[in-house]
Amino acid sequence: MNLRAVHYYKPPIFIASLLPLALLVQGYVQDSLGANPIEAITRETGDWTLNFLLLSLAITPLRQITHWQWPMRLRRMLGLFAFFYACLHFAIYIWLDQFFDWKGMVYDILDRPFITMGFLAFVLLIPLALTSTRGMMQRLGGQRWQRLHKLIYVSAIAGVLHYVWLVKADLQEPLTYAAILAVLLGFRAVMQYRKRQLSGQPPANRASARPPAG
Amino acid sequence: TRLGNIRKSAYSTTEKLTPFKDVTTYNNFYEFGSSKEGPSKLAPRYLKPRPWTVSVEGEVRRPRVYDIDQIMKLAPLEERIYRMRCVEGWSMVIPWAGLPLNALIRQAEPLGSARYVAFITLQDPAQMPGQQRELLPWPYFEALRLDEAMHPLTLLAVGLYGQILPNQNGAPLRLVVPWKYGFKGAKSIVRIRFLSRQPATTWMRAAPEEYGFYANVNPEVSHKRWSQKRERRIGEFRKRPTLMYNGYGEQVAHLYRGMDLNKYF
């Protein structure tokens, strides 16, 4: 597929990315989300935040393995959808879980490690979403922008820990996310190591004229 | 199957009942997986609640293996409409049918050395497919102090909504202790054992800092990972405040007089 074909792929992928939300709204209206619909919505929006985070983190390895360029054109959108579902997830926590009990929330964030991690994962996404535009990328400069956007790794790790520490006993699902994340980050570590071996100098000194790799 | 001749009980609450559908499709029953819907899908297919025997054993004068039908005749069945508060922060109102546990305990005649009563769930991965994974140390094991077990509110449930207990709710026999978090209510019980010492229960063994032996509903003592101040009653939008001893304080607070509830949580 050439780069221009992305123009045709992007709109359907955009719409498909809204499908989880559409299904939740439909489920809520039709009362088919089970006995505890708010819990179901909380869980689903959390799942989809992680799904989109991992998808956006899969783009770089995919490009390096296949040498396709087109997936890069989707990365920003996938990352922004992760932020979108994270916002929904967080809004539901504030509204339908805590009912705007600010004191309770501060306590939660400071004292409950799984909420600390979730909050951290969310907060770290904010600067990334704000600087996701081409204009901001230019204003920051490629290298600084890249360094800033490495925060996505921290956010993803915090997001997965948030899930691992939430679960009472059955770790299968959170550990699946952890394993996929480990592969995606491990791939980068290996590539970085190899590059360093080849160039014989630390990565910070590399000139970065190439497109941003995250 | 409908249960005949169920007497009303003065211990029932008049609160609005949680719909039958929610009571029977939103279950924590890890023997059928960790999801809430899993038990209602798997338990009706796999669990065979008849024939069923329950062994009453340990520190008692009269140990005995009961058939489930004999247990159901130990005392007249009563309808007990109880609040049920899950440790996860949700609650229901359920019309149970059953008999006070103390009717069975009296038959067994506990020895002076008996101070605790343990409730042990069936262990059979063929009937309980969730046991094919080590989610929890199987079999599920719960226990009460003898005075808690003798308390008139403590119920051996054999039904709900006037029917035989659905498999996913712990057929054919489960424990209901309305002032404690729901996980104290062992399901599909095959053994009731009288002990002289306090045992470690399943959730205590799985996560000792998070689950204590008593597990009394207490809004002031939070779970390590979430507050217990409020709860979502299934079917309601807003959360409601959680009541001390799940609202049964008048009947049970004396059992814990002088105890440090932060320590004995």
From TrEMBL, chain A:
Cofactor: heme b; FMN
Membrane topology according to the record: Multi-pass membrane protein
Keyword Electron transport belongs to the record: yes
Cofactor binding mode and count: Binds 1 heme b (iron(II)-protoporphyrin IX) group per subunit.
Role summary: Part of the MsrPQ system that repairs oxidized periplasmic proteins containing methionine sulfoxide residues (Met-O), using respiratory chain electrons. Thus protects these proteins from oxidative-stress damage caused by reactive species of oxygen and chlorine generated by the host defense mechanisms. MsrPQ is essential for the maintenance of envelope integrity under bleach stress, rescuing a wide series of structurally unrelated periplasmic proteins from methionine oxidation.
HAMAP family, A to Z: MsrQ
Record-annotated membrane-spanning stretches: 78-96, 112-130, 151-168, 174-191
Name the record gives this protein: Protein-methionine-sulfoxide reductase heme-binding subunit MsrQ
Subunit composition and interactions: Heterodimer of a catalytic subunit (MsrP) and a heme-binding subunit (MsrQ).
Annotated compartments: Cell membrane; Membrane
Protein keywords: Cell membrane, Electron transport, Flavoprotein, FMN, Heme, Iron, Membrane, Metal-binding, Transmembrane, Transmembrane helix, Transport
